[in-house]
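Suppose a colleague, Dr. K., hands you the sequence of a protein chain of 459 amino acids and asks what its three-dimensional shape might be. Before reaching for any lab equipment, you can write down a predicted structure in token form. Begin with the sequence itself:
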Amino acid sequence: MSGVKIEEVKSTVNSQRIEVHSHVKGLGLNEEGRAILPEAGGLVGQENAREACGVIVDLTKSKRMAGRALLLAGAPGTGKTALAMGIARELGPKVPFCSMVGSEVYSSEVKKTEVLMENFRRSIGLRIKEIKEVYEGEVTELTPEESENALGGYGKTIVSVIIGLKTTKGLKQLKLDPSIYESITKERVQVGDVIYIEANSGAVKRVGRSDAYATEHDLEAEEYVPLPKGDVHKKKEVVQDVTLHDLDAANAKPQGGHDIMSSLSQMIKQKKTEITDKLRKEINSVVNKYIDQGIAELIPGVLFIDEVHMLDIECFTFLNRALESTIAPIVILATNRGMSKIRGTDVTAPHGIPLDLLDRLVIVRTLPYNLQEIIHILSLRASIEGITVNEDALTQLGKIGTQTSLRYAAQLMTPANILAKQSGKTNISKDEIDEVASLFTDAKQSSKILREQESRFLM
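The predicted structure, expressed as tokens, is then:
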């Protein structure tokens, strides 16, 4: 009799999505603000740029950078976005960081300046402090209690939920209303998470994952917090972080007529509604009142605009005015252009940015990576993606990166890994890299082919 095959099904609850800059953990600076070489915080090389960004982080933390702007200028693939992500990681998860691309402002429904204003408001945080009666602790048990549906049928309804909360002082089991279970589900709470439940409103807030579950190699997204101190049931200063745009959106009302056709058209197509300046001024007035009373604190965040040369003269004029506002975030711009025309004009300017705005910017230059730095970055990417690459294969990838671009070399790793698996290998060798390089064409090769065979293509 042949043995029955039994395989363990692995849980995918804690699986993380690997992004382009998943490996970036910070700027990789020591206590004196000097770049740690050859690599730290997921960043390789770019010592001067990293140290300059470290100064920006210090200014931001001391709240002396508001209303100023930084420009990251360099060739494609020199780590401009990685530096911006490093600044965000250094500032921490509580400081708002809003990222956008210059081309996002072009919409058929909303004005360009309105899109910029929304992102400005998303980049400004408000920290509200209140004393509330809460139940707080690490979740040790989460069991919904079900009963037969009173209306008949096969379904069951949740009548209550049993939850266990643990602190350093003890453990308490609570029986909660089913409406609170809906809040727990929305917050995606699971055993091992640290949460608090407001006694009056029943609102549930997930603080983070208990640090008892932390591992050495975590990619991103998950925030680990210590086990709460004191009793489970207590009075606590609850801190809520919102952005000014959150307040704008919560107080905005859809615009349009009150007749049947207007109602139907709104139901069929939910158009994006502009928030009026009058509403923003009212919200600013209330926010300033809370700040004066000591209830709230303004947290200027970071607005990162990539491909800033895609903005036009109208947007640049708006940026000039917005940077002078009393409520403004730190603005980081990035571009890979040299001397180019300012969009919407016939004027040629450095980086495609008007000179009056350039005069306000602190410019940080990023330099192309050398062979050893490219190999180091590729080895980091391979480690994050769980790919094993031989040294000769990494060297070959590095050479390809110097001839083409770092991005192209990084993109070749995944198809090379697939070829290696098809050949029954666990490691990527130089053979797989050479084969993948022969299968695909980079931008420079493609441009060369187009020039040589221009007559064969449609104009």
